[in-house]
Amino acid sequence: MNEKTTALKTAIRSRLQARPVPAEDSERARALRYATAPEMFVPVLSTRFGPGYARRLRRELVPVYQATHALLHRLSYAQRLTPADLQDAVANWQRADHYLARARRLPRTYAGARARLIARDNESVAREVLEVLAARLNRAA
Q: How many domains does the chain have?
């Protein structure tokens, strides 16, 4: 390892140690425990994509997360549903599943945990969009 890598690891360790530990019964603590559970991980991609990959992925996830919530809002209050709405919902769920698969390969760092939380929430909301759509279509039939 070179000096730059060693300095970066030291800075990350000091920042992680300086963060306050959340109370055990808080929602944030439960979410962080869930995001860092062993089943949420597959082999790490950080060596392949370099440092800062978790932060870059989180920045990619924010507009996708907002688009998923906007789609849920739009389909919840739509007067009529079209085949394009169904295609949008399925494409949105596939995109959310893709980002969740990418987020599961992040290292166990604070940035990785935050990206996994956003990706997991985005995937659950995308699944909820499909459930809302199915309920509306079943009610109409």
A: 1
